[in-house]
From TrEMBL:
Similarity field: Belongs to the TMEM19 family.
Pfam families found in the cross-reference section: DUF92
Species for this entry: Fictibacillus terranigra
Protein name: DUF92 domain-containing protein
Stretches that traverse the bilayer: 33-61, 87-104, 153-178, 184-206
Cell location: Membrane
Keyword Magnesium: no
Length: 264
């Protein structure tokens, strides 16, 4: 308990630093602190390590992607750091895994943690790296090539990046929490669940997820505001935002991996 208390202060210091350098907004900082406390309380430094592996690699990829996108003159999202919606879209599954484990310790929650973060990594890696694909991405439901950055579109570069992101997280998680054959099973299960969860994310993203057309630059975007003006709705349901879809698909991937481990 004492260690947790001390940890809370140290974590608050890091979150404040991330807020100061515009990596997190105020709400994003609070959500990150809560997430960190629960995951550390349940899974200790190993759980925190996995969380950090996801958030640090994603932030670095986003920063690198932003530079590349500026060079390619494609659209860049205006950002003041991650807000609570974005933190929970990717870390919500990990939060439930930690809360569940604190109430009733079981390997199921570990698979939910690893699987949900694997899917979140697949999604982030696919969108940050895939947008750099030289070929125009192929929209799996419209059955034609579309402009870069649209939900529902895939490219071979994006799919490769999704697989690398998913299996990187599952490799780290399985090695930290499991041994021998069990570790190999968890690696395969969580990695595959993460990759397939990202496919589900793409399908939902291309169908019911809301998207808008910017009145100023004409781009198809996921946010309601772009170039400083309110956009026209293009498709989907307003409540099914990108964050909601990310949360649902990452949690679904983690739950699938968790249920499968009960059978094996
Ligand atoms: Zn615009």
């Amino acid at each position: 308990m004492m260690a947790w208390f001390v940890f809370g202060f140290i974590l608050a210091g890091f979150v404040l630093a991330a807020y100061k350098i515009n990596m997190l907004t105020l709400s994003g900082g609070l959500a990150s602190w809560g997430l960190g406390m629960v995951v550390y309380g349940a899974f200790g430094f190993k759980g925190l390590g996995l969380l950090l592996l996801f958030f640090i690699t994603s932030s670095l990829l986003s920063k690198w992607g932003k530079v590349k996108k500026l060079q390619m003159r494609t659209i860049v999202k205006e950002s003041k750091g991650r807000d609570s919606g974005q933190v929970l879209a990717n870390g919500g599954g990990a939060f439930f895994a930690g809360a569940g484990y604190l109430l009733l310790p079981h390997p199921f929650w570990l698979l939910l943690l690893i699987g949900s973060l694997a899917e979140a990594a697949a999604d982030t890696w696919a969108s940050e790296v895939g947008v750099l694909s030289r070929a125009e991405p192929y929209h799996i439901l419209r059955r034609r090539r579309v402009e870069r950055g649209i939900s529902g579109a895939v490219s071979s570069l994006g799919l490769t990046a999704a697989a690398v992101g998913s299996f990187l997280i599952s490799a780290a998680g399985s090695l930290m929490f499991f041994n021998g054959t069990q570790s190999l099973i968890v690696f395969s299960l969580a990695g595959l669940a993460g990759f397939l969860g990202n496919m589900l994310d793409t399908v939902i993203g291309g169908t019911v997820q809301v998207s808008y057309r910017c009145k100023r630059c004409g781009a198809e975007v996921e946010e309601r505001f772009h170039c400083g003006v309110e956009c026209d709705k293009l498709k989907g349901w307003s409540v099914i935002t990108n964050n909601a879809v990310n949360f649902a698909s990452s949690t679904a991937a983690g739950l699938t991996a968790g249920v499968l481990i009960l059978w094996i």
